[in-house]
Amino acid sequence: MSASTTSRKPRCQTLAVRVGPLTIGGRSPVSVQSMTKTRTDDVKATVRQIRRLERAGCELVRMAVPDAAAAAALPEIRERVALPLIADIHFDHRLALTAIKAGFDKVRINPGNIGATWKIREIIKAAAGSGAAIRVGVNAGSIDKSILRRFGRPSVPAMVAGMAHCLEPFEQAGFKALVLSAKTTDARETIAVYRELSRRWSYPLHLGLTEAGPPFEGAIRSAAALSVLLLAGIGDTIRISLTGDPAQEIEAGYELLGALDIRRRGPLVYSCPTCGRTGIDVIGLTRRVKQALRAHPEPLKVAVMGCVVNGPGEAREADFGIAGGASRGIVFAHGRVVKTCGEGQLVEALVREISKERTK
Ligand code: SF4
After folding, report:
1. Is the distance from the beta carbon of residue 304 to the nearest atom of ligand 1 less than 6 Å?
2. Which atom of ligand 1 is nearest to the CA of 306?
3. What distance in angstroms lies between residue 288's CA and the mean position of ligand 1's atoms?
4. What is the Cβ-side half-sphere exposure of residue 211, based on CA atoms within 13 angstroms?
5. Which CATH number covers residue 186?
6. What global pTM score does this model have?
């Protein structure tokens, strides 16, 4: 690391919380999660989407449980899926009890929406009895009314006070299998509120923005907030919420962790922006390289460059790459040219070079 590189602080030490076979917090890697977007009572579609998410690298998956029909589907979903499962419950605490009984590994509740403390206590008792974890979420829109009156608006201090209020029954019961979240749509507010949560509590933190937006905007907004926190050592599990395919949330999550050198899964593909020197179809090649390496397990850095002038030189950090000339190009490995071929053969030649190294 050069002297001018922004440093990354060690992860803040949080409690280790078991969520089925996975651990969130403690010394475990930052986990990447998503949420299904199917109707939960459509078991077939939900299971199919969970399997796609699993193939994309999703480590725990949450699903909405809005009513009794969704709750009735949970045992069958549990039976058909090995991935740690989280039930997302609002308003009706009995749905949380059903999810825990069905063997879900975690429930996400917003105590402000659940209501009376006895209902929260029932959820705590059921979770403690079955070893399930609970995520306590405080959103700007559901802060306790008495706290809102005190602070005037759903500000950062109001959210932190709201969290303290929500945690009271858990602390009275000595229940520690908690993950906390306090989501807003505003990147700077999210940074401020999570800094405060991290300072005050040692429970692991679930990072994310709420209603982050469509894939392009949502990924940028999420990265703006989450990168600051992750570089400060804050955050134990992440979800990049996007209005789109949930598998993209997983891809975005790993891209973010990879860009910060926190965690890598599969290749990181870099490509030049193209310019007047570009001799090959960089956009098409980049898409094909990503596709060809989709199932590749190693965390390689692969570059796709539009010209030889700046090819291997600019991409010297890359393990492998291709750089174009006029309808031809080179394949390079660790800064050395290993092959020259026509544009149509470049991706195949690159994949061959990568495979050769794996079999060495
Ligand atoms: S690598 Fe070459 S083609 Fe790509 S942006 Fe740089 S100079 Fe232009």
Report:
1. no
2. 3
3. 19
4. 6
5. 3.20.20.20
6. 0.92
pLDDT of residue 2: 42
Tell me, yes or no, whether 245 and 336 share the same domain. no
Does 3 have pLDDT greater than 60? Answer: no
pLDDT score at 86: 98
Q: Is residue 94 part of a domain?
A: yes
- Dihedral angle sign, alpha carbons of residues 351, 352, 355, 356: negative
Question: Could you tell me the two tokens for 24?
Answer: 């969130």
Question: Which secondary-structure segment (H or E) carries 254?
Answer: helix 246-259
Contact 84, 78 (CB under 8 A): no
- 254 Cα: distance to centroid of ligand 1 (angstroms): 26
Tell me, yes or no, whether 278 and 245 share the same domain: no
Q: Are residues 183 and 321 in the same domain?
A: no
Residues 6+ apart with CB under 8 A from 320: 300, 301, 302, 303, 331, 332, 333, 334, 350, 353, 354
What's the domain count of the chain? 2
pLDDT of residue 295: 83
Report pLDDT for 328.
Answer: 85
Does the beta carbon of 281 lie inside 6 Å of ligand 1?
A: no
- The ligand 1 atom nearest the CA atom of 311: 1
Q: pLDDT for 188-226, tens place per residue? A: 999 999 999 999 999 999 999 988 899 999 999 999 999
d(C-alpha 314, C-alpha 209), whole Å:
34
d(CA 267, CA 298): 6
Q: Domain containing 343 — which CATH number? A: 3.30.413.10
Judged against a pLDDT cut of 80, whether residue 39 lies above it is answered with: yes
